[in-house]
Amino acid sequence: MKGDRTTLAVMLALHEAGLGVALPFSENMRYDLIIDDGRSLARVQCKTGRLRDGGVRWKACSSYAHHRNPAVVERDYTGEIEYFAVYCPETAGVYLIPIGDASLRAKGTLRVDPPRNNQRRFIRLASDYQIGRVEIEPAATGL
Questions:
Q1: For residues 108 and 63, is the Cβ–Cβ distance under 8 A?
Q2: For 93-112, what is the mean pLDDT?
Q3: Strand partners, 58
Q4: What is the rounded CA–CA span in Å between residue 126 and residue 91?
Q5: pLDDT for the residue 15
Q6: What is the rounded average pLDDT for all residues in the chain?
Q7: Virtual CA dihedral for 93, 99, 104, 109, nearest 10 degrees?
Q8: pLDDT at 111 over 70
Q9: For residue range 3-47, what is the model confidence (pLDDT) as tens digits?
Q10: Within 13 A of 36's CA, how many CA atoms are on the CB side?
């Protein structure tokens, strides 16, 4: 359910930004959406971000640790996507991050608050990647 909300928020923000959005036919793809800017297509992996310590953080790898005897425990998205699209419910922001700008370690981070030490190098500001804001109410229970 969380992933569905994130994908819907991303789709709405992309549409509002004037980009075409297509869904892959198979669930077993390494990307969630395809965006069309009128000149080219790009694969997008949607992620839910969480506001922690002044930054929006998301998992930048898939984990297979829950599988019995996985061949690989974590797998990044190198060569399989062009963008991460991150929706953060706490900021209502939707961020489109080229994979080349994202950390490919376990987690990616976009700074919402400037660092207290005024560091500028290697800092990715959320405002530089924000493509829209989407407010989604929490799901009602008992329906």
A1: no
A2: 87
A3: 108
A4: 10
A5: 97
A6: 86
A7: -20
A8: yes
A9: 889 999 999 999 999 999 999 998 778 899 999 999 999 999 999
A10: 5
Q: Which two tokens stand for residue 22?
A: 């297509």
How many whole angstroms separate alpha carbon 16 and alpha carbon 105?
A: 30
Question: Which pair of structure tokens corresponds to residue 125?
Answer: 């500001």
pTM: 0.86
SS (H, E, C) the chain: CHHHHHHHHHHHHHHHCCCEEECCCCCCCCCCEEEECCCCEEEEEEEECEEECCEEEEECCEECCCCCCCCCCEECCCCCCCEEEEEECCCCEEEEEEHHHCCCCCEEEEECCCCCCCCCCCCCEHHHHEEEECCCCCCCCCC
Q: Name residue, tokens 């976009």.
A: 110
